[in-house]
Amino acid sequence: MGVKFPLRTILILAGIWCVAGAVLLFSRSASPSPEKLRAYIESHPLEGVQDVGRAAILEKAAAQLNRLDFDQRRELRQGAVLRTFFEELTPAERSRFLDLTLPEGFRQMMSALNKMTPEKRQRLVRKVVDDIQKNSPQSAERINEEEVKKILEQGVSSFYEEANSDVKLDFAPVLEELQRNIQKTAR
Taking the model in full, what pTM does it have? Predict the structure, then answer.
């Protein structure tokens, strides 16, 4: 009798470890990554796809994007795949994509900014202001005025709701530069 108890215990523990290993493998394969989203977008071109299919692709891409963390989103934005995907969307699809992805993106950005050291935040502010100054004409050509308004409204709203006072103070130059650019394009 004494032999059955340890054998049964060992078998139960082995079964538990097998289940835990399977769950771990599944969660790793299901976890989002910029590479997986890039691969999804590249393997699901929008050209020639009808409305329902396009909507499904858009929804799945948005869901995958929302599951990425702040750094993964930034990595993805540095490539051209997401920009090309966005540019291939119709105006209504672009609006839907922004509605699906902006709130989570800005929430993550505010969380990351709130956690940054003041020095790192200042470097980021300088980089963002430089980028705004350099890329304003190109951005204006790629994104229509309604999309810009939506992005700015969502961003400013998230900024004022979720950023701490230090972030708000540090990012004042960014908001001023954005305002200057809006005034330039409105002329």
Answer: 0.67
pLDDT (tens digit per residue) in 20-42: 666 655 545 557 899 999 999 99
Calculate helix-pair angle for 172-186, 118-142, nearest 10 degrees. 10
SS3 letters across 24-44? HHHHHHHCCCHHHHHHHHHHC
**Which is nearest to 94 in space by CA: 105, 108, 84, 104?**
84
Q: Which domain holds residue 153?
A: 116-187
Residue 58 in any domain: the answer is yes
Domain assignment present for residue 1? The answer is no
Residues 40 and 81 in one domain: yes
**Looking at 73-182, which runs of residues are DSSP E strands?**
none
* Whether the Cβ atoms of residue 183 and residue 138 lie closer than 8 Å to each other: no
Q: Is residue 4 part of a domain?
A: no
User: Which of these, 87, 91, 93, lies nearest to 51 by C-alpha position?
Assistant: 93
How far apart are the C-alpha atoms of 171 and 147, rounded to whole Å? 22
Q: Is residue 164 part of a domain?
A: yes
DSSP string, 40-103: HHHHS--TT--HHHHHHHHHHHHHHHHHS-HHHHHHHHHSSHHHHHHHHS-HHHHHHHHHHHHH
pLDDT grade for 92, boundaries at 50, 70 and 90? very high
DSSP 143: S
Question: How many structural domains are present in the chain?
Answer: 2
